[in-house]
Amino acid sequence: MSVIVLASSKGGVGKSTIALVLAHALAHAGGSVALIDADPNSPMDAWAKLSGGNLPERFTLNVGVSEDSIIEKIDEASERDSFVIVDLEGSANMAVSYAIGRADLVLVPLQGSQLDANEAAKVIRLIEREARAYRRKIPYAAILSRTSFIKPRTAKHIESEIRGAGIDILPVEMTERDAFKALFSFGGTLYDLTSEEVSSPDKACANAEALAQAVIDHLRGLKDA
């Protein structure tokens, strides 16, 4: 069992998209996955309704999860599933605090901008405060999202600064792809999309699977450390 929490202090960084795509890829690979939607905007609930309730195999979805229920939902899922993925609100509140306290890994998404880097730094400070409060190490890593195929110099500079600060960055980025956006328009899974609906769905699946493997490798590295 691994609890993976997506945390960001701002919207628009691809947090919910990463959570959903990662869940699809892990379930497709044979893992049992619980996706917990603790974002009041309920993006996963909207996706599920578009999907007509036809969810992937080995996949459960919990929506409408609040600070009053988030610990219970995470603990219940942890006893049942191989992976628990928690999508949080883009702000600091008690639900965010509780989820971080239960995390085996917190992923902090950001795009290649200074504003996103500054917000990611706030989240990392929050994680470190929670680690002190819970008196345990809470691992975290940055994940670059919505990246372009040609990386601007600014993005390269920010990535270098993050590494220089001793912060892990997942080696796989989530690139800007039509298929990822389409999930919240068409519903279904990433593997249901066709070339008539989006461009290069096979490449999007490959990106998702590489990301899932990077997360698994990172979790294994933490256990071996």
From TrEMBL:
Protein name according to UniProt: ParA family protein
Stored CDD domains: ParAB_family
